[in-house]
Design goal:
With 338 residues, this protein is an alpha/beta fold. Helix content is 34%, strand content 18%. It has 10 helices and 14 strands. An 8-stranded parallel β-barrel has the order 7-8-9-10-11-12-13-14, surrounded by 7 helices. The longest helix has 17 residues. It binds phosphoenolpyruvate and manganese (II) ion.
Length: 338
């Protein structure tokens, strides 16, 4: 249920409504919009008092059910788009935010070289995996904490905030010490314990859609993070599995306008994993911006032929810089900036 408060209610009155909701056995989440403050009351309704009773409070305008199974993630609860702040970078505002860097953190010089190059080209956030989810147990699994340290050094040198994947619940705290954004990978999109844990950390979360995750399941996964008290969730479309084999995955760009219709959360697109081929990254990146993506996450490696993971889909820094130049007019054409 959402409890819509009358215009101009004071903070103390919002607190009073929240207290009442808690007494009734639900969890209150305050959402402050431009014009109105609403409180989402979440929790199982069976066996609990009817929230419509709150309409008796003087500060409450109305109480309405939320139709969708995800509540805090839905547009019904928050009609305006959400902005997620990553240090000084705003994801979900007018500017399209580009995150770039290698698939895996491989060494200190590799990270430094790529960080300087993507920053010069206009990337706003640095990516790099220190914990890698690999299909084969014999493939490179990441440099782990050493990799996190290289990321932190690259951040110090360039000032770029860092997004990196957290693979297991046990390493959430350690990864959060270094990362500015915690990435939940496609394979973990329904790891509910991990989702709850990153929700408790309060750091921005980049949640990747699973390769076989429906939009509804994806938004329910986001709901786990939101319900744990973390409002800073960025959704990421990274390709789904279809019958098609010429590309690694099928980048589902439908997901961008669909997610933006159903949810207020910012949406970014990963054309690197979505295609699996470096030469398909630029056209799909442009298409993603054209259809309304709030950002992109792109794999860039100084020498893709030597990459320890995902070399075939990684752009060289020069190609990335060219893409950034070509993206600017696309962004402008849809009322955005880079
Ligand atoms: C990655 O970003 O390198 C990655 C492993 O992505 P995904 O979880 O989308 O496969
Ligand atoms: Mn990768």
């Amino acid at each position: 249920m959402i409890i819509i408060l009358k215009s101009g209610v004071a903070d103390a009155e919002v607190d009073a409504v929240c207290r009442r909701i808690t007494e009734m056995g639900y969890a209150p989440h305050v959402i402050r919009g431009e014009f109105k403050t609403v409180v989402a009351a979440v929790g199982e309704e069976r066996g609990r008092p009817d929230l419509r009773l709150l309409e008796a409070m003087e500060t409450v305008e109305s109480v309405m059910p939320v139709q969708q199974p995800y509540k805090l993630a839905s547009r019904e609860v928050r009609p305006e788009p959400s902005e997620v702040r990553v240090n000084g970078v705003v994801v979900g505002g007018r500017a399209v935010v580009v995150m770039a860097g290698p698939c895996s953190v491989e060494s200190e010089p590799q990270m430094r070289e790529v960080a300087v190059a993507v920053k010069a080209a206009g990337a706003r956030i640095l990516r790099g995996g220190a914990y890698k989810p690999r299909t084969s147990p014999y493939a490179f699994q990441g440099l782990k904490e050493q990799g996190l340290q290289y990321l932190a050094e690259a951040r110090k040198q360039t000032g770029l905030p860092v997004v990196t994947e957290v693979l297991e619940t046990e390493s959430v705290e350690l990864v959060a010490e270094y990362a500015d954004v915690l990435q939940i990978g496609a394979r973990n999109v329904q790891n509910f314990t991990l989702l709850r844990r990153v929700g408790e950390m309060g750091k921005p979360v980049l949640l990747k859609r699973g390769m076989a995750t429906s939009i509804q399941e994806f938004l329910l996964s986001a709901e786990y993070v939101l319900a744990a008290g973390n409002a800073s969730v960025i959704l990421c479309e990274r390709g789904i599995r279809t019958f098609e084999t010429t590309t690694r995955f099928t980048l589902d760009l439908n997901a961008v306008p669909v997610l933006k219709k159903l949810s207020h959360l910012p949406v970014v697109v990963d054309p690197s994993h979505g295609t699996g081929h470096w030469d398909l990254v630029a056209p799909m990146a442009k298409a993603a911006v054209a259809c309304g993506a709030d950002g992109l996450i792109i794999e860039v490696h100084p020498r893709p032929e030597e990459a320890l993971s995902d070399g075939p889909q990684s752009l060289k820094p020069s190609k990335f810089a060219q893409l950034m130049r070509e993206l600017a007019p696309v962004a402008e054409a849809v009322g955005r900036a880079l």
